[in-house]
Amino acid sequence: MSRIAYVNGRYLDQRRAEVNIEDRGYQFGDGIYEVVHLHGGRFIDEDRHLDRLERSLREIRLPMPMTRAALRHVLTEVARRNRVGEGLLYMQVTRGVARRDHAFPRTPVPPALVVTVKRIAPFPQDVERWAAACITLPDLRWARRDIKSINLLPNCLARQAAREQGALEAILYDAADGMITEGAATTFWIVDEAGAIRTRHLDQVILPGCTRAALLDELRQAGIPCEERAFSLDEMRRAREAFLTSATSFVKPITRIDGEPVGDGEVGPVVRRLFEIFARHVQGDRRNAA
């Protein structure tokens, strides 16, 4: 069965789906995107993702392409038509089609909306096999990383560098002060040498991760302390444990960075527990993983 995409009001065979060559997303990267995890036919953290979509659109002065209720219907319909119960929904909103000009169109045009879905492997069960390695790179992205822009060239270059070095992710840092920002497509966390769980505070330097927010809520409910406080490359290298979060990484242990082991090089007890807690979150079970 061919995949079905939603493109500007129509459900189309994805092999034949097209966008106009003067779409501002294609020519300028003038748009916003979101990715939502679909598990067991249920959208995980859907409201968080739609809230972030609306916020990012406001920040670039672009209206929602339709009401939230209508967008939810489109997401559900794309999943249904593709018969996907375990997957990733991708949605992209751009400033639409207009003659090429860097400034916004003088006469507003309708935003363009594309939604696709792809199947992914079932939620991981083995935390040991879910572990990965990272590299570190200077953060070369623009200043408004809190906006989920479709401009992802620095992220792509960082991910490619990681792949070429046999790693999954690139952990980015500010070259001016050596402070960690985030992963190229993930939120980065450590369990520092004192045993504190830490991730950078929210500001314009990092994306407000939806999985980050969901895990913080779970930690609060479980009574597990966590610090939203920046840390340096040096603190990262002395950390006991490290992990990533995202809609596609969930809670992913990181056991090697730049070829060196994190802590003892094994999945640690804190990350192991957080993996279990987040697995319960995905399953819709609000109980603590003790």
Automatic annotation (TrEMBL):
Taxonomy, superkingdom: Bacteria
Annotated coiled-coil segments of the chain: none
Entry's Gene Ontology cellular component terms: cytosol
Annotated signal sequence range: none
Cofactors named for this entry: pyridoxal 5'-phosphate
Role description: Acts on leucine, isoleucine and valine.
Protein name: Probable branched-chain-amino-acid aminotransferase
Organism: Roseicella frigidaeris
